[in-house]
């Protein structure tokens, strides 16, 4: 009944993921409406989204949903909102996030003094890492990834705290206002039906 009459093709779905057909502004507005309609208090929704957004600034790319859900659960926040928040980390933002947390980690002293991201040969690094992974060489994987992973991990910690704060406070106010306006509309509709 509510399905599309013409199914969209796979390449349309992929291109829509990278560049929304409805546009970025409408995508963000849809996201805000979706967050406002989630069940829960403004605290739980904003905190959950902030947990998901903050965890996107960690180098653990395959585990953002799980880590965001655990963090939201610990803080008694909305777990679904944390899953939505992980959308902050996406193919458009990951390169910038990784460069940022790598530099922050180097500034914190995690990397070697001579480590510079412009001097790293990422194709060779990933080639060696893939070869070690396919051979099952765990020690090799750790040895190859440590010069990059350790600065990224250390640099992600203060960045995650800052990102959490940046998203939590404005979003809590936005969700509170949205829920208040929605409640007022419902009351007006009920009173008009009663008359």
What is the number of helical segments per DSSP (H or I, 4+ residues)?
8
Alpha-beta content class: mainly alpha
| Total DSSP E strands | 0
The fraction of residues assigned to DSSP E strands is: under 5%
Helix content: over 70%
Q: What is the H/E string? A: HHHHHHHH
What are the low-pLDDT stretches, counting only 5+ consecutive residues below 50?
A: none
**Rg over C-alpha atoms, rounded to the nearest angstrom:** 21 Å
Approximate shape: elongated
Considering the chains and any ligands shown, give keywords for the structure:
195 residues, 71% helix, elongated
Describe the structure.
- By secondary structure, the protein is an all-alpha fold.
- Helix content is 71%, strand content 0%.
- The protein has helices at 10-18, 24-36, 42-55, 64-74, 79-85, 94-107, 122-134, 138-194.
- The radius of gyration is 21 Å and the shape is elongated.
- The two termini are 34 Å apart.
Summed up:
The chain is an all-alpha fold and 195 residues long. The chain is built from 8 helices and no strands.
SSE layout and pairing:
Blueprint: H1 10-18, H2 24-36, H3 42-55, H4 64-74, H5 79-85, H6 94-107, H7 122-134, H8 138-194
């Amino acid at each position: 009944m509510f399905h599309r009459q013409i199914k969209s093709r796979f390449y349309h779905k992929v291109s829509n993921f990278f560049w929304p057909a409805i546009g970025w502004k409408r995508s963000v507005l849809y996201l805000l409406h979706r967050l406002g309609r989630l069940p829960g208090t403004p605290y739980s929704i904003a905190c959950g989204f902030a947990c998901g957004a903050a965890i996107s600034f960690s180098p653990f790319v395959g585990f953002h949903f799980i880590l965001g859900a655990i963090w939201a659960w610990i803080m008694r926040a909305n777990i679904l909102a944390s899953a939505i928040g992980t959308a902050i980390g996406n193919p458009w933002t990951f390169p910038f996030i990784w460069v940022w947390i790598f530099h922050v980690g180097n500034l914190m002293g995690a990397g070697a003094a001579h480590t510079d991201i412009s001097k790293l040969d990422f194709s060779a690094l990933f080639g060696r890492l893939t070869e070690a992974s396919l051979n099952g060489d765990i020690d090799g994987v750790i040895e190859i990834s440590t010069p990059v992973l350790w600065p990224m991990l250390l640099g992600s910690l203060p960045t995650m705290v800052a990102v959490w704060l940046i998203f939590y406070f404005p979003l809590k106010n936005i969700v509170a206002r949205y829920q208040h306006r929605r409640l007022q509309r419902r009351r007006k509709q009920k009173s008009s039906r009663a008359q």
